[in-house]
Amino acid sequence: MVDAPAALATSPFTGKEVLLSMRGLRAGFATDDGFVRAVDGVSFDVARGEVLAIVGESGSGKSVTAMAILDLQPTLEIAEGEILWKGRDLLAMSENARRAVRGKEIAMIFQDPLTALNPVHTVGRQIGEMARIHEGLDRQQARARAVEMLDLVGIPEARKRADMYPHEFSGGMRQRAMIAMAISCKPDLLIADEPTTALDVTVQAQVLEVLLDIKDEIDSAIILITHDLGVVAGLADRVMVMYAGRAIETGTTHEIFYETRHPYTLGLLASLPRLDDVGDEPLVPIVGSPPSLIRKPSGCSFHPRCRFARVPGNCETDDPALRLVAGDAHQAACHYAEELAGVTVESLRTAVDVTEPERDVGLPFDRAVVEDGAVVEDVAVAEAAAHPGVTDRAEGQVDQWPATGQGPDDGEGNR
Amino acid sequence: MTSFIIRRLLLIVPTVFVALSFLFLIFFALPGDPANLIAGGAERNIDPGVIERINERYGLDEPMTTQFVKYWQRTLQWDLGDSFLTRRSVNETLGQRAPNSIRLAFWAIVIEIVVGISVGMVSAIRRYSIGDRFTTIVTAAASAIPVFVLGLVLQWMFAVQPNKHDWPEWARLRTSGIGPDSWAFFVIPTGEQWRYLILPAITLASVTTALLARMTRGSMLEVLRADYMRTARSKGLRERDVVMRHGLRNALLPVVTLIGLDFGTAIGAAVLTETTFSWPGIGSQIVDSVTARDLPVILGLTLVVVLAYTVVNLIVDISYAWVDPRIRLGKGGQS
Amino acid sequence: MTLTDQATAGGAAVAPESTDIADLGTARPLRADVWRRFRRNRLAIVGLGFVVLLILVALFAPWIAPYSITDRASGQFRQPPSADHWFGTDNIGRDMFSRVVHGARVSLRIGISATVISLVIGLALGAMSGFFGGTTDTLLMRLTDVFLAIPYIILAVAIASVVGRSENSVILILGLTGWLFIARIVRASFLSLKRLEYVEAATALGFSRTRIMFRHILPNALQPIIVYGTIAIGSVILAEAALSFVGVGPQEPTPAWGAMVAQGRGSLSNAPHILFFPGAAIFLTVLAFVFVGDGLRDALDPKLK
């Protein structure tokens, strides 16, 4: 249906063709307070067979990036850039052509399977629906496809389960059903938006495993959107870290985790408890909150929260571009990326004394663990109070879709 | 589902019992002297002999408990009593009047559902459009205008004016009465019947249509924001199919319960509409009997209305449970 | 789990919404905000303007009305509007304008008094039901079920036909039948508020149940009640008009708008003004209260919509 262009670029990482190529995308939302620059010049490639993780806090623009690909956010305004799908610009396509891509070639797995599945239709019907639209299957064939897909994602008694409703499924099963739905037309690209966030920790691993198996089974690519670095470590080939609508570091998973070249990434890693922690390592928080996307800080957007920022200095005045900092494709957007070469999570944790002296001494081992969260929170609060500018700006933070937010003119009462 | 229906049915019994007993108390215990009321009211001086005869005739001099038991005996045998005025049995009156009320209600409901739901849907989908704003104002107006005023204004516009200004014959409607009373399949008007039906049906439908449009709009707006609608879009469905296949049913779920609750409003509107258009239904009969102080007729017909109301709500609840798999399958959603 | 979550959690702790139990009774800082939002709603402002006008007309009716409500202009039956009689005259030659102006008094008096009665009963029963729960709740809710099983207007007509037709009996009838929804709304807000943290905190601090009910829950349950109460005044006026129309409202010569419309019914073809003016008065009054209520709802709590 979609006429393929002559030759697709191949990825330097996998040697397979590049499926999706985002080029300098700028997009955002018009609000009463100004234009929210949710995505501010983001470029990346995804090749067949590859898992790209997009990591960031809420409000970093990672979900908006995904929505832009499928055009699922009616209020999103795309200002600039192109999204090339197999060489053709999605943004220039007609609505009909885009719809043919949606679901069939690019499918989406949503965060909360309970709300993302329609409560009044059976799971089987919702899974089979995609094949009915795109492949013209009839009711029976669609049901058969649904059963097949449920089976594929490891749901026992798929035949029976297909006739059940979402509320009869457990959380993990629902997410499997969601995956079954997404893969039912064997798409080339799966976009998974926080696929495990709504699940229990024990179920998370199972669901991720299903996702990876499926990827190999249907030879697709995955864009994994998450704030959970733990999920990234186990799943992704490459990582793009986003902050305030920008990509601030990209590289292989190994590079991002062990050769970090951006203070924000480093901060994310240092704040993450790790399995090999013995318990007395302090978690180092990133102080403050993400900046307003309407009025971003001058210079580097991260400088108000950065431990390494040179203020006054160019961190405050010059916006660092994403540039090659090491290896073939390890890029970071920091003026002093090279100087971070020697800094590891461990050294950061030892260097920064986050605990107050009286809390630091004499606490029994397990108590310290229990206290960890509290300590971290207290410090965050204290420092936020010490940098009022940071929290002030944070109030303008927009991490909700305008359309789903509770605007003053929103909705109409039932009574 | 079955246990739900049984539970719901069992709930009706005490409700209806208390409600009907309450009505009995209002009519026969509350007035110091019902016989006096029957004879013409407290304002006039009535010959004590007349009062005595009335008491005797209707058993009003018996102790309240005896009267109460008799009332229930009669009610359970579906004997609604006899009119004080015409001596005709209320059952007979009911048999004559009820079909007319049902016919009028049927057409009002048809208008309500067709117009209310489609206007509400379009309004939600084209939110903030001129049509939506217009709808918002019209629905507010329709719920604020008294039914009888609307009915009379419609009569003036479509029945009085055409005759005054010699409008073409097809544009002339009738102000009141049921006309030739000719129906096919019980509800389909035949011949000239539609000229008598159309205005009261629109009048009766106005309030509930406005309510339904408002409810549908609100509910649909909520549904349009739902995650599963985004999921449906992500599958590559046409926007129309997204709305019709995934939106409509979810949007109508809460609307269904509210239709039941607003049936009370609809009954009130029916009483006023029938009165305004002299439509010979139950509602206009109740009003006539109130004017004539014909207590047994008021009580008997009110009883019927209460039962109808209860049954409609029962049907609404059951169909709601049936449409929503979360209830049909016996457990609530997990969140 | 990750830093981002904790950072936002920490951020929330310094956010201005931190709840101070002592503050809960007073919503004063919000008042200016409510008015600002209310003012932005054009329909609500128009509605409020009309309600204010109506109150003024009702207060100064004897000075505004050119004639008495019982004066009959001899031989001038069913006169169309003129310079002498702005709204024309009725079936027996009384000045319609004067009667409509005085009718505002009747409607507002009945609307407000009956609503107050409904509010008092509804608040008391709803609060008890929601706060104490258990058997009290079950019994009271069954009671509202029973009353809800009798359609409002039927119940009102039934009672009116027995207790007689005066302004006071109409007030009582509408007041005694109008509390059902209020009780339900109050109960629902009590149920949801009871579980909120600050109420649990107040319980933990050992405040008495009555104190918690009146100082901590009631002020917060008031918002939906204010909204509903405003709209209810309109509904009561509408119901009063309906009762008057079917002939069980206040008796002649009380200038009830509904009764005036009923009187105009017979002269539809030759004197439609007799029903148009009181009809329009009812319509505009009810509409104004609906607009004000809607505006209040949106202004008090944008989420409530």
Tell me the Rg of chain B in angstroms: 24 Å
Largest interface: B-C, 56 and 47 residues
Task: Report the count of strand segments of chain B.
Answer: 2
- The helix/strand order of chain B is HHHHHHHEEHHHHHHH
| Coarse shape of chain B | globular
Structural class label of chain B = mainly alpha
**Structural class computed from helices and strand pairing of chain A:** alpha/beta
Count of alpha/pi helices of chain A: 16
Give helix and strand order of chain A, one letter per element, not per position.
EEEHEEHEHHHHHEHEHEEHHHEEHHHH
Unreliable stretches of chain A? 1-6, 355-415
Percent helix of chain B: over 70%
The number of helical elements of chain B comes to: 14
Helix content of chain A: 25-40%
**N-C termini distance of chain B:** 20 Å
Q: Using the alpha-carbon principal axes, give the shape of chain A.
A: globular
Give an overview of the whole structure.
The complex is a heterotrimer of chains A (415), B (335) and C (305). Chain A is built from 16 helices and twelve strands. Chain A has 415 residues and is an alpha/beta fold. In chain A, 35% of the residues lie in helices and 19% in strands. Chain B is mainly alpha-helical. Chain B is built from 14 helices and two strands. Chain B has a two-stranded antiparallel ribbon with strand order 1-2. By secondary structure, chain C is mostly helical. Helix content of chain C is 72%, strand content 0%. The N terminus of chain C is likely disordered. Chains in contact: A-B, A-C, B-C. At the B-C interface, helix 1, helix 6, helix 7, helix 11 and helix 12 of B face helix 6, helix 7, helix 11, helix 12 and helix 13 of C.
